[in-house]
Amino acid sequence: MMKRLLFLLLITVLPLIASTSTIMKLEIKGTIGPASSSYLKEGMAAAVNENAQMMLIELDTPGGLSTSMREMIQEITNSSLPVITYVSPKGARAASAGTYLLYASHVAAMAPGTNLGAATPVSLMPVQKMTDLNASSPSALEKKVINDAMGYIKSLAELNERNISWAMEAVKEAKSISAKDALRYGVIDLMAEDSNELLNKLEGRSVRVSGKNIILKTEGAVILTFEADWKTQFLSIITDPNIAYILLIIAIYGIFFELMNPGAIFPGVIGVISGVIALYALNMIPFNYAGLLLMILGIAFMIAEVFIAGFGILGIGGVVAFAFGSLLLFDADTLGSGVSIPLIIAFSLVSLGFFIFVLQFLVRSRSVKVVTGVDEMVGVIAEVLESTEKGYRVRCHSEIWYAESNSVLEIGQKVRVESLLGLVLHVNPIKE
Question: Taking the model in full, what pTM does it have?
Answer without folding.
Answer: 0.69
